[in-house]
Amino acid sequence: MPAQQSDSVKYTNMFKAYGAFWRRGFTEWHGTASRSEYWWNVLMNMLVWIFFWVFIGMWMGMAMGYGFDESPIVAIVGSFGSLVASLYGTACWIPRLSLRVRRLHDAGLSAGWMILYGLKFVALIAGAFSVMMGGTSYMMRGLASWGVFLFVFWFIAEIVLFVLTLLPTAKGVNPYHKFNK
Whole-model pTM? Predict the structure, then answer.
């Protein structure tokens, strides 16, 4: 029996993959996403984030370097840049989840692996809270230790998800490829 060909689209252009990220991200959860589609979007999102933070950092650094740190203009532009970056991150959240689910499908894995994605955010929030609340009492020291454990879990979950997105397209019988037709 011949191996089934992959239905996932291979993008050779970052901008086409980024367009598909926004076009498919809110509606398609059943299909697949090739490695090129996934990693072009990771790169593009990194570049957008670098632009945001370099722009905000340069603006704030330049303004403070010239002694404008008391100026309301600095606060307004810095706040506006931070707001735009936050809105972009919020808007990307669902398409990023969809893309990761489709990438797992392309590798022949179930979207059940995304439970690590949810658990890592719970671990990150709980770990940050417990480290912030750490103090001198016995209970608070235990809470801080629990927070460190949760941070380690978050790191391990991120590594596992990273490795799963690196897996090649499943060329054999892959039940997720039928949704791309």
Answer: 0.72
